[in-house]
Amino acid sequence: MSPATQSNNALGLLRELAPRVLGVLVRRNGDFDDCEDAVQDALLAASRSWPVDGVPKNPTGWLITAASRRLIETYRSEAARRRREHSYTLEPAPGTVPEVDDTLALLFLCCHPELTAPSQVALTLRALGGLTTAEIAHALLLPEATVGQRISRAKARIRETGTQFRTPTARECDERLPAVLSTLYLVFNEGHTATSGQALNRVELTSEAIRLTRQLRTSLPDEGEVAGLLALMMLTEARRDARTGPDGALIPLAEQDRDRWDQSAIAEGVAIVEATLPVAKPGPYQLQAAIAAVHDEAADFAATDWPQILALYDVLAAFAPGPMVALNRTVAVAMVRGPAAGLEALDAAARDPALRGHHRVDAVRAHLLDELGERDAAREHYLLAAQRTRSLPEQRYLLARATR
Amino acid sequence: MKYMILIQSNPQFLERWKALPEDMRERFGHDHVALSAELAETGELVASEGLADPALAKRIKVADNQTVISDGPFAEAKEHLAGFLLIDCESEDRALQIAARVPDAVWGLVEVRPVLDLSGMDM
Lengths: 404, 123
Fold this sequence. Notes:
The complex is a heterodimer of chains A (404) and B (123).
Chain A: H1 3-29, H2 32-53, H3 59-81, H4 103-110, H5 117-127, H6 133-140, H7 144-161, H8 170-193, H9 205-219, H10 224-237, H11 240-243, H12 263-276, H13 284-297, H14 306-319, H15 323-337, H16 339-349, H17 359-371, H18 375-388, H19 392-402
Chain B: E1 2-9, H1 11-19, H2 22-42, E2 45-50, E3 58-63, E4 66-71, E5 80-88, H3 92-99, H4 104-107, E6 109-114
Antiparallel strand pairs in B: 1-5, 1-6, 2-5, 3-4
């Protein structure tokens, strides 16, 4: 094994073990905030020594011991500060580690409804992903101080609410799972957003989101939406290499080189969709995954089964009606019934006040007008869309379309 | 999502600023520091700075690989950037809420602009 591979394996193992170690510590000591800091210190120590000295025989035990020692030091110094007569006899007891899956309890804590979405993302990446604050900051394109503050504030907020660390009940699961899934999807989309070339040593948030969702699926194998989200991520990630040109330019689905799609990711995503849809309670992630699966299974753009995509959008619109679903559906309408019918559907969808001034309305309109051969009107809307988008690659793409 | 809060000023605002009583100017500065500290505490602040007088500005022009630097003040400017906050927050509503707390919003001009990101829709 090369030193680089050995180092990567050690770091991968660390991240894998992070939530387990944290779970054990919180169960023993109760305080999420201090335990999380202690685990973070232990992970940092391990990330320095493991790649050099090799992974210890019992890596979980090693981390638990290191984190417990750190925690005791914290308690002792706090006690000394408060000038209290406390003797902590709590010695690290690596011994046997109970086979409890704390992924769920930790995820529910990190996605606490009292926290803002950006805080949920940062805390989840640290407590469950085992990432350092610096790595998270780097991945989110933010200063380390900003992310560090977000994490400590989130932990303080959880402490204030007095939330207990425990495995959620079935009812709590039902109520709060959507928030957990939306945080994981946000992590995935942040990764999608921040893709700016293959930066070395940068944690890929998309792979991180997939890894965490996979873990969640192990804890909740029968939740259709967990499976649906995992499949959606895999089927989207499968197209990643083909989505951008060498210069970072966006390549639309219709023009992507499908040989560059990751077939093993597609196969896994499709298999999850096929195994889940017939038996699980349906939901928006499963339906979006099913739509992505139809796209990913087409040999080329022309071979796409558009009637099926349209049918899936109709079901999705019934389950989770919303302006973006209605807007995306218009593309499918145009592919099945022609661009004129697509424009009609677009007019109807664009009446939603939430879409007023939205660049995607103009982008879709421009595209459909282009299809109808109305070049001047198309150009006008490409330019409007380019002006209204918040994304640099999209702006480049839309301007290129306008001046083509 | 990142937003840039631009604090614009102009010669009239500057005149009014200079005419303010000392304690009001002090409170203004204090409110700025307090807002930045609060945003740092919430983990929403990326950067915030106030800019020196536009008289200290220099302009750079590169033509035919030659760099030409000209000194201010540039009298023609109707408005100038007096400071900025770069924030990363949950929504545009939150960005607007923060902007309304910038002391300059009371008597100057404060503008919120979304920052371009690298996201890309699947088309």
